[in-house]
Design brief:
CATH superfamily of the largest domain: Periplasmic binding protein-like II
Pfam family, one: HTH_1
Structural class: alpha/beta
CATH topology of the largest domain: D-Maltodextrin-Binding Protein, domain 2
CATH architecture of the largest domain: 3-Layer(aba) Sandwich
Shape: elongated
Family: Belongs to the LysR transcriptional regulatory family.
Keywords: Activator, DNA-binding, Transcription, Transcription regulation
GO molecular function, one term: sequence-specific DNA binding
Number of domains: 3
Protein name: LysR family transcriptional regulator
Largest sheet: 5 strands, mixed
Strand content: 15-25%
Number of strands: 14
Number of helices: 11
């Protein structure tokens, strides 16, 4: 049967091993040097092993001590990390969400206060990307993506469709009386090469060459459009505020489906309490927008 090992003795050893000094460990633990030395000696007796060589000017850790130290350091670090999450009698849990920038700015950010009010003990960390994301490699609990929902190794739950429509400044809109008038304008493009061809098809026109600049984000494309650089083809639902403020105009009531927004997570990752809270919250927010979304967890 393994001997009972007092926590204070383990803590005394771990601190002494980091500092290679009983004196410095005593200062860190707010006890006397004699107490640290005694606790380490008691630990050695219980283990039946020498953990330090006592030298005239400090300590030298033995092979047995080298084997024990990283295990204890990791355990104490993990305990401290969890304890730091407690505040006011509640456990604060970190939730890391990656999102395409267009969705983050156009849909999520205006609703962040709602999430904070609903889940005050979840610490949300939001990171943006251009739809290329590695959930495991980037340490993400969720990624909100635009596409068809087929990402290997991921659970993907549809939030809502996001049809593409033409947006431009009011000045440019005055020149656009019919879709064919776009032939005289600079057409801003996304990384999806078929967007404009599909839109022209929906408008009843033959595809035409598109040589405008390419953007990896609809948000960036619209910023360029608002500065008069050309005409954007983007998910119009993400830019309702810009339309309401008159910075953008939708000259044609024609749209085309290019994908949907999805809430994704790793299939191999069990849902945490914070993940369940976020999925339930985002479901409620989308439901209130008259879109049916299943719960994630």
């Amino acid at each position: 049967m393994r001997p009972y090992l007092p926590l204070n003795a383990l803590r005394a050893f771990e601190s002494s091993a980091r500092h290679l000094s009983f004196t410095r460990a005593a200062l860190e633990l707010n006890v006397t040097q004699a107490a640290v030395s005694q606790q380490v000696r008691q630990l050695e007796e219980r283990l039946g092993a020498t953990l330090f060589k006592r030298l005239p000017r400090g300590l030298a850790i033995t092979d047995e001590g080298l084997a024990l130290r990283p295990v204890l350091s990791d355990a104490f670090d993990r305990i401290e990390a969890v304890l730091r999450q407690f505040e006011g009698g509640h456990l604060h849990e970190v939730l890391t969400v990656g999102s395409v920038g267009t969705f983050a700015v156009g849909w999520l950010m205006p609703r962040l206060k709602s999430f904070r009010d609903a889940q005050p003990f979840v610490e949300l960390r939001l990171m943006t990307n251009n739809n290329l994301v590695d959930l495991a490699g980037e340490g993400l609990d969720f990624a909100i993506r635009f596409g068809d929902g087929t990402w290997p190794g991921s659970r993907a739950l549809k939030l809502f469709d996001a049809p593409l429509s033409v947006l431009c400044t009011p000045d440019i809109a005055q020149r656009l009386h019919a879709p064919a008038d776009l032939a005289n304008e600079t057409l801003l493009r996304s990384y999806r090469a078929d967007d404009w061809a599909n839109w022209f098809g929906a408008a009843g026109l033959a595809p035409r060459p598109v040589r405008g600049p390419v953007f990896d984000s609809s948000r960036l494309m619209v910023e360029a459009a608002m500065q008069g650089a050309g005409v954007a083809l983007v998910p119009v639902s993400m830019f309702e505020r810009d339309l309401a403020m008159g910075r953008l105009v939708r000259p044609f009531e024609i749209d085309v489906h290019a994908g949907s927004y999805w809430l994704t997570s790793q299939k191999a990752k069990p849902a945490t309490a914070a993940m369940r809270a976020f999925s339930q919250w985002i479901k409620k927010e989308v439901d209130e927008g008259a879109t049916d979304v299943p719960d994630l967890a």
